[in-house]
């Protein structure tokens, strides 16, 4: 079922302009039916109602055709979207940052500027700061997906409650947005791209990556409330909101999470239903399910904990990376053939790292066998993309590491299309996913990615072609010949 549109008319001048416009379009005034209404005007089959709060609402027309582009009203009353300045527009935004329950959904969208005029009237009136039913957000999301055949695309990375409880949120957002941009770096020419970030307090890690993209020719914009001015950010916000509402809708409809007639609710600290659910659940179970962020104050109070939680900061370690690669990276160039990793223990600089499984995968020096701390975060920052070769796509060590949010969480993952189990797991964990076909070495070379393999033959072929390789093996003490 189609929903109507809403606009916020802040001044009497704006209300007068819209009223005159509707009458010029053949509108007919009707009697108001509530003391909260200022006027009603019917244009064709669509009824426009202005409320005393300044909200203008239009009913969905029975035949599904609006009498004029909805963006006309927006253009009458508000500054229009900042128009395209590049061929491609990337917007970044999130949903769920301040809530007690569930993921933070970080989303990046790309829209070709040629779609701007088509998308603008459809989504200008969508206010992602307002509460609606999941069906409303799903409808808007499906409408947006209809543009994928014309070049619209999006990527989402989900910050898990476990991550949120362990690390500073802005630090996590820096790294997850960087992973999204790292993927888009391989898909569009950055010199033809505008990147807009809804500024949440962008930190050093993302700032340095944005500078890298700027040196590649991208136009970079960091601004608060970007979703009010940039269409690409509004669309990212819409998708993030829809995906969060989908998760919360699932939790609220699950009998597993109901107790004494209470469901988890909206998950924010001002929601009385959520606060009642917290108390009832803890009284019964003395613990919380996976989606509760235990570092948040209302949850800590229920558990009887005081003080502020201590959270860590994820850092990268540039000294692990070869100097030639870093030099070119600082000038906006991503040169995979220059990439090497320096072992802090023996000083060996190698284009091959050995991966072994402990609780999670860990990288070790091929020469001395010592573990290299911070390797996953650092490689993930500078390269951000791993191709999982077909022979390890069902490997239990890979599956376990993804389940445990280990080494591979630092990357976007290229996965063979013939690996539905791995694909579903990556999707559930909210990591960047890109399905691929074709010969692995050629694909890795083209996309400037890292190769993950357990095949000695494939490893040797990749190394001969200058490809950085992660070699998955059993317990290892060093001395690969």
Characterization of this structure:
The chain contains 16 helices and 19 strands. With 481 residues, the chain is α/β, with parallel strands linked by helices. It has 3 domains: 73 residues, 2-Layer Sandwich (TATA-Binding Protein), CATH 3.30.310; 236 residues, Ribonuclease H-like superfamily/Ribonuclease H (Nucleotidyltransferase, domain 5); 155 residues, 5'-nuclease (Rossmann fold, 3-Layer(aba) Sandwich), CATH 3.40.50. It has a 7-stranded mixed sheet, sandwiched between helices. Helix 9 runs parallel beside helix 10. The chain is globular, with a radius of gyration of 25 Å. The mean pLDDT is 91.
CATH topology of the largest domain: Nucleotidyltransferase, domain 5
Strand order of the largest sheet: 14-13-19-18-15-16-17
Q: Which runs of at least 5 residues are low in confidence (pLDDT < 50)?
A: none
CATH class of the largest domain: Alpha Beta
Helix content: 25-40%
Shape descriptor reads: globular
Binned strand content: 15-25%
CATH architecture of the largest domain: 2-Layer Sandwich
Structural Rg: 25 Å
Give a quick precis of the structure.
The protein is of the alpha/beta class.
Distinctive features:
alpha/beta; TATA-Binding Protein; Rossmann fold; five-stranded antiparallel sheet; seven-stranded mixed sheet; 481 residues; 3 domains; 16 helices
Outline the fold blueprint:
Elements lengths: L4 E4 L3 H13 L3 E3 L6 E7 L2 E6 L3 E4 L12 H7 L10 E8 L8 E9 L3 H8 L10 H12 L7 E7 L1 H6 L2 H17 L7 E6 L5 H12 L3 E5 L7 H22 L19 H14 L11 H7 L19 H7 L11 E2 L6 E2 L1 E6 L3 E5 L9 H8 L2 E4 L7 H8 L8 E5 L3 H9 L4 E4 L3 H8 L2 E4 L2 H9 L4 E4 L9
Parallel strand pairs: 6-9, 9-10, 13-19, 15-16, 15-18, 16-17, 18-19
Antiparallel strand pairs: 1-5, 2-3, 3-4, 4-5, 6-7, 7-8, 11-12, 13-14
Helix pairs in contact: 4-8, 6-7, 9-10
């Amino acid at each position: 079922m189609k929903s109507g549109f809403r606009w916020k008319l802040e001044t009497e001048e704006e209300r007068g302009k819209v009223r005159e416009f509707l009458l010029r379009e053949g509108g007919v005034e009707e009697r108001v039916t509530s003391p909260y209404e200022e006027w009603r005007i019917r244009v064709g089959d669509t009824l426009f109602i202005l409320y005393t709060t300044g909200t203008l609402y239009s009913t969905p027309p029975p035949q599904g055709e609006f009498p004029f582009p909805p963006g006309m009203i927006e253009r009458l009353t508000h500054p229009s979207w900042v128009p395209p300045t590049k061929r491609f527009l990337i917007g970044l935004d999130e949903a769920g940052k301040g809530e007690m329950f569930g993921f933070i959904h970080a989303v990046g969208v790309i829209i070709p500027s040629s779609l701007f005029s088509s998308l603008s009237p459809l989504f200008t009136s969508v206010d992602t700061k307002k509460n609606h039913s999941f069906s409303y957000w799903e409808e808007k999301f499906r409408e947006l997906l209809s543009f994928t055949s014309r070049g619209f695309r999006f990527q989402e990375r989900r910050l898990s409650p476990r991550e949120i409880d362990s690390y500073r949120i802005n630090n996590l957002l820096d790294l997850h947005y960087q992973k999204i941009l790292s993927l888009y770096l391989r898909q569009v020419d950055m010199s033809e791209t505008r990147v807009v970030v809804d500024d949440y307090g962008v930190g050093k890690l993302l700032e340095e990556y944005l500078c890298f993209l700027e040196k590649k020719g991208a136009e970079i914009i960091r601004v608060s409330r970007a979703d009010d001015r940039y269409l690409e950010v509004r669309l990212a916000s819409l998708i993030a909101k829809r995906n969060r509402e989908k998760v919360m809708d699932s939790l609220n409809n699950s009998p597993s999470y109901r107790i004494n007639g209470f469901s988890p609710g909206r998950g924010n600290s001002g929601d009385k239903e959520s606060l009642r659910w917290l108390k009832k659940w803890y009284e019964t179970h003395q613990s919380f399910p996976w989606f509760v962020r235990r570092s948040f104050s209302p949850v800590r109070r229920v558990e009887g904990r005081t003080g502020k939680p201590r959270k860590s900061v994820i850092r990268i370690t540039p000294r692990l990376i070869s100097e030639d690669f870093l030099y070119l990276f600082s000038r906006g160039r991503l040169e995979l053939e220059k990439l090497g990793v320096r072992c802090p223990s023996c000083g060996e600089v190698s284009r091959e790292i050995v991966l072994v499984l402990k609780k999670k995968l860990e990288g070790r020096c091929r020469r001395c066998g010592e573990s290299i701390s911070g390797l996953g975060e650092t490689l993930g920052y500078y390269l951000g993309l791993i191709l999982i070769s077909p022979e390890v796509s069902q490997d239990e060590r890979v599956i376990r590491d993804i389940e445990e949010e280990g080494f591979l969480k630092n990357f976007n993952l290229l996965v063979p299309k013939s690996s539905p189990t791995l694909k579903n797991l990556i999707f559930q964990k909210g990591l960047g996913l890109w399905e691929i076909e074709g010969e692995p070495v050629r694909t890795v070379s083209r996309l400037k990615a890292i190769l993950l393999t357990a095949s000695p033959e494939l490893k040797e072929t990749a190394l001969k072609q200058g490809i950085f390789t992660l070699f998955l093996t059993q317990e290892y003490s060093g001395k690969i010949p």
